[in-house]
Specification:
Elements lengths: L1 E4 L5 H8 L3 E4 L7 H8 L4 E4 L7 H6 L5 E5 L8 H6 L6 E5 L3 H9 L13
Parallel strand pairs: 1-2, 1-3, 3-4, 4-5
Length: 121
């Protein structure tokens, strides 16, 4: 499994993902859409924050993409209509927030889709 991270993410989270998958981390990738398109071709998962615009062109390029992880809250930078059209291969969008450990484990180990938006402890 290959995880592509296109924006800043704390090193501790990246290291946890590296234990279970190949991780490509480029915190400035969101600035270059063509490079993002080239990199997403081989990715199984994409992790973004608030700068990466996940539009139809990005989703179409990510033929292997199964998961979009959103580090933070809100999905306004993800074209949900285009993602819905990819529902046969995209399991669910996940927001990494309060329950990020649960989300990491379940998504990236492929156990089940788990949505953590607005989940509070």
């Amino acid at each position: 499994m290959k995880i592509l991270i296109s924006e800043y993410m704390p090193e501790s989270g990246i290291n946890r993902m590296r234990k279970i998958a190949e991780v490509e981390y480029n915190p400035d990738l969101w600035r270059n859409k063509q490079e993002l398109i080239n990199k997403i071709i081989d990715a199984d998962a994409l992790v973004v924050r608030n700068q990466t615009i996940v539009d139809q062109e990005i989703l179409e390029a990510g033929k292997k993409l199964k998961v979009i992880g959103r580090l933070g809250v809100g999905l306004d930078n993800i074209n949900l209509l285009a993602a819905k059209q990819c529902k046969n291969r995209l399991r669910q969008k996940c927001q990494f927030g309060f329950s990020s450990r649960i989300c990491y484990g379940r998504y990236f180990n492929g156990i089940e889709a788990y949505h953590t938006s607005r989940r509070r402890r």
